[in-house]
Write a structure and sequence with these properties.
The chain has 299 residues and is mainly beta. The protein is 8% helix and 38% strand. The strands form 2 sheets. It has a 6-stranded antiparallel beta barrel with strand order 11-12-15-18-17-16. It has a 6-stranded antiparallel beta barrel with strand order 4-5-6-9-8-7. The chain starts with a strand and ends in a 5-residue tail after the last helix.
Length: 299
């Protein structure tokens, strides 16, 4: 069977744990205004423009690893720094229900973070580091200008490997991806990444709908659908909330889901790795939602 899994690593509190699949995110300067404002951050040097190495060097400092802990267990995802004082964008399913959030920068320095606002309808969340200043920030681009075949780079923490860089192209636009707002459709096991820390126990993974089919269990009645960018850049568990980046070093999407075949040789709750079918929330969706997230609405 094939699995369309969210890309966040989920580990159970007792014994083993399960890996689930989620995605990536985005950045901005502390002077940025939010919804419609330009977002200025790191840029690729003229000599390195158009290269994966140049994009990685410019944007990696603005990509972080997020560890979220709740009574149900722990999950790991990624995030993008958008202000110098520590505003970070990620997927709602990475941090939903977390009682404690730890963020690790590319330098290895760690911070405790607080949730500012969440939007389960768009699978987006905004968190803020405690006592941070002078951080490297990313630049939010314009996803309306993205074209099929355009080269892209993904940066995140798959399987907890901080700062992992992969590359590929934009494979398609406007793919309908449907996700559960909480874990109510996942056999009642755990609390989904809508209200409560999901995918922690019982081998349950985040349920998705794609192409008229359901994967990883029943999505239940409380679902939301977004138009996603499709990419063949490799995404794996832990990439959720990280960034999909164009060759100018601008964030064009928040990686949020991947399609993967089940691994019959693996234990319960395990999935095979990336097969080049990844999905990202367009950055313009994030830009339009920033003011709402900053106001703490949708929590």
């Amino acid at each position: 069977m094939a699995l369309l899994a969210a890309v966040a690593i989920a580990a159970g509190v007792i014994g083993g744990g399960t890996a689930t699949l989620v995605g990536q995110l985005n950045g901005q300067d502390s002077a940025a205004t939010g919804s419609g404002g330009a977002v200025n951050g790191t840029t690729v040097s003229q000599s390195s423009k158009g290269t994966v190495a140049g994009v990685a060097e410019a944007v990696s400092p603005a990509i972080v690893e997020i560890g979220a802990a709740s009574s149900a267990g722990k999950s790991t995802g990624s995030g993008v720094v958008i202000t110098e004082d520590g505003e970070i964008v990620t997927n709602n399913h990475v941090i939903s229900g977390a009682q404690q959030i730890q963020v690790t920068l590319s330098t290895g320095k760690t911070y405790t973070a607080d949730v500012v606002g969440t939007d389960p309808d768009k699978d987006l969340a905004l968190i803020k580091l405690q006592g941070a200043s002078g951080l490297k920030t990313a630049t939010l681009g314009d996803s309306s200008k993205v074209k099929v075949g355009e080269e892209v780079v993904a940066i995140g923490s798959p399987e907890g490997l901080t700062g992992t860089v992969t590359s590929g192209i934009v494979s398609a636009l406007d793919r309908d991806v449907t996700v559960a707002k909480d874990d109510s459709g996942s056999s009642g096991q755990g609390q989904g990444q809508g209200q409560g820390q999901g995918r922690q126990g019982g081998g349950q993974e985040w349920p998705f709908e794609f192409g008229g089919q359901q994967f990883n269990g029943d999505t239940g009645e409380e679902t939301t659908t977004y138009k996603a960018l499709q990419t063949d850049a490799s995404l794996n568990p832990g990439n959720s909330g990280g960034a999909l980046i164009n060759m100018d070093g601008e964030i064009i999407g928040i990686n949020s889901a991947m399609y993967a075949p089940s691994s019959s040789a693996a234990g319960s709750g395990s999935s095979a790795g990336s097969v080049g079918l990844g999905f990202a929330i367009p950055v313009n969706t994030l830009k339009a939602d920033l003011d709402t997230l900053r106001a703490g609405n949708g929590s």
